[in-house]
Design goal:
The chain has about 550 residues and is α/β, with parallel strands linked by helices. The protein folds into three domains: about 325 residues, no CATH class; about 80 residues, no CATH class; about 130 residues, no CATH class. The strands form two sheets. Strands 5-4-3-6-8-7 form a six-stranded mixed β-sheet. It has a two-stranded antiparallel ribbon with strand order 1-2. It is globular.
Length: about 550
């Protein structure tokens, strides 16, 4: 492949991963936890022990917080800074995959593999999200890639890079960063019946290198926080996730099958044809590299399928070997890959995504102000695809181009409006402008409002539920680290209530409350006794004479000015 083609690929990747990042708000509930923790790291000056709401936070290891905190030091506490390093590591993963394909196969395979990955749905989503997975993906992939290069070439630099990358993976996401690659390697060696390689794998010195990278932070945390750190980090966030489902509704056998069909779209439609060809034409034979890549993908899938807690992002690491396998297939026999059936699958897939977007807006899940951008993107993508068909016989380019342009349309038509619905930035700005130091809140807890305001939001819980809400070891309640207090003993002149929780709040409270204003999806209530005492907020008042004492009252007065 020509240098200009590689340069164009990286420019397109950068365009996709950085476009709109300044407008994508920090959303609740996952992104805001990472963002707020990194912000507190900067403000407190404590770069060792992650904190959130002023309390130590043992949810994840420190490396992603370091990266995000560094970005805040460089760019300030902004949306762009929050998403900077996920995008950087997304680009690094494309470079790694391109290099891997070129080295293991040829330049054409490396290029096609990178094109497949950059135009897949999940890569696009995760590389723009404030979560650990983009960083873990890079180190996880580097660990296994360097293992295979060390296995096949025997060079020490690959082995030591493997151990260092595994250490950084552990520092990014925890023990899974070394346990899962270790399981993949073990199963592969059992399949190969090749155990002699362990003698030249620099086990002793390599293990020491891995420990040198990963262990110091864990040792320091144990020295400072003792059993609390061990029980929460290793107990709740590792062992408990594996044994007790955090989201039981997702415990269905087809969960990850559906996830990965979408994750690899539009290229997942190539998999049935690839399996058919392998089974009938290749006589079910696999070379060593194919065996390794297949073990890598299948073990990741099966491992997380067996875990009690399921997340969409857990099987993300299998996209690296899947992209490499598909890229090698397309490079080898491109003409037979892009059949009419496959092209129909792609067309139906984009049509389904477009229909889903219109349905979501019709149901009120997101705004439709910029929805016209999405069909416009489809038209532009179709035109560009036609031009590419005239310029190049390679059918991979029009499909990849369609996907990338579609994703760019998604950013402005769906992602940005959706982030506005999932973020309490407006509430946070209001609190910051009025210098609110502390306020009570009932309903869903908007961590993003804390990130944007710096205010203390105290979650109000009915007193009879307070004991069950308190964080306990080896329980999902250990995640309840935000400030909270009994609702009946609240003393705030103003209460912030999530819109959906207003009726429930009123049903638990004997006082009568007046609506003082609204910011986004949050309603501000004041007790009747405090009427007129919060003018310093300069809120737009409505229904001044209506006393919201029941659910019906709320429904009757909702939205009136």
């Amino acid at each position: 492949m020509a240098k200009w083609q590689w340069l164009l690929l990286f420019l397109v990747t950068a365009l996709l991963l950085f476009t709109g990042n300044s407008s994508l708000l920090v959303t609740d509930s996952v992104e805001s936890n990472y963002a707020l923790t990194a912000k507190e790291m900067v403000l407190s000056g404590d770069w060792l022990s992650p904190q959130i709401y002023g309390h130590y936070w043992y949810d994840k290891p420190v490396f992603f917080y370091w990266l995000t905190a560094l970005s805040y030091k460089l760019f300030g506490f902004t949306e762009f800074a929050s998403r900077f390093f996920p995008a950087v590591f997304g680009m690094a993963s494309i470079a790694l995959l391109g290099w891997a394909g070129s080295k293991l196969y040829n330049a054409r395979t490396g290029f096609y593999s990178a094109v497949i990955l950059v135009s897949s749905v999940e890569f696009f989503l995760i590389s723009k999200s404030i979560i650990t997975d983009a960083v873990l993906f890079f180190f996880f992939s580097a660990t296994l890639l360097c293992f295979y290069l060390g296995y096949s070439e025997g060079k020490a630099r690959y082995w030591y890079t493997m151990y260092a990358a595994a250490g950084l993976a552990v520092l990014t996401k925890g023990p899974i960063g070394v346990l899962l690659p270790g399981l993949i390697i073990t199963i592969f060696l059992l399949w190969q019946r090749d155990y002699v390689v362990l003698k030249r794998a620099h086990l002793v010195s390599g293990t020491l290198l891995c420990l040198l990278v990963a262990v110091p932070w864990y040792a320091a945390m144990y020295a400072l926080h003792g059993s609390d750190f061990v029980a929460t980090f290793f107990g709740t966030h590792n062992f408990l996730r594996a044994t007790v489902s955090e989201h039981p509704r997702d415990n269905v056998i087809y969960y990850y099958a559906l996830v990965n069909i979408l994750a690899l779209f539009p290229w997942s439609g190539l998999i049935p044809g690839a399996v058919y060809t392998w089974w009938h034409r290749d006589k079910r034979s696999l070379d060593t590299l194919q065996r390794f890549l297949l073990v890598w993908a299948v073990v990741v899938f099966a491992f997380f399928q067996c875990m009690a807690t399921k997340y969409i992002t857990y099987t993300y690491p299998l996209l690296f070997p899947a992209s490499l396998l598909l890229g090698s297939m397309v490079a080898r026999e491109e003409a037979s890959c892009f059949t009419k059936k496959y092209l129909a699958w792609v067309a139906c897939g984009f049509a389904a995504l477009l229909a889903a977007a219109f349905w979501a807006t019709s149901q009120g899940f997101m705004t439709d102000a910029y929805l016209f951008v999405l069909p416009l993107a489809v038209i532009i993508a179709g035109m560009l695809g036609f031009v590419l068909c005239l310029l190049s016989p390679a059918r991979i380019y029009p499909i990849a181009c369609t996907a990338v342009v579609f994703y760019l349309g998604l950013i402005f038509s769906i992602a940005i409006p959706f982030s506005q619905l999932r973020s309490a930035k407006d509430l946070g700005i209001m609190l910051a402008q009025h210098q609110v130091q502390e306020v009570g809140l009932y309903g869903s807890y908007p961590t993003s409002a804390v990130f944007y305001s710096g205010s203390k939001l105290v979650k109000l819980v009915p007193e009879k539920e307070l004991e069950t809400y308190k964080p306990k070891s080896m329980s999902w309640t250990s995640k309840n680290v935000m400030p909270f207090a009994a609702m009946e003993k609240q003393h705030y002149p103003l209460i912030i209530v999530s819109e959906k929780s207003v009726p429930d709040f009123l049903s638990h409270n004997h006082n009568r409350w007046l609506t003082a204003g609204r910011w986004g999806q949050y309603v501000l209530l004041e007790p009747v006794a405090a009427q007129g005492k919060i003018d310093n907020f300069q809120l737009k008042r409505y229904n001044k004479d209506a006393r919201l004492s029941a659910k019906s009252d709320w429904r009757n007065n909702h939205g009136r000015t």
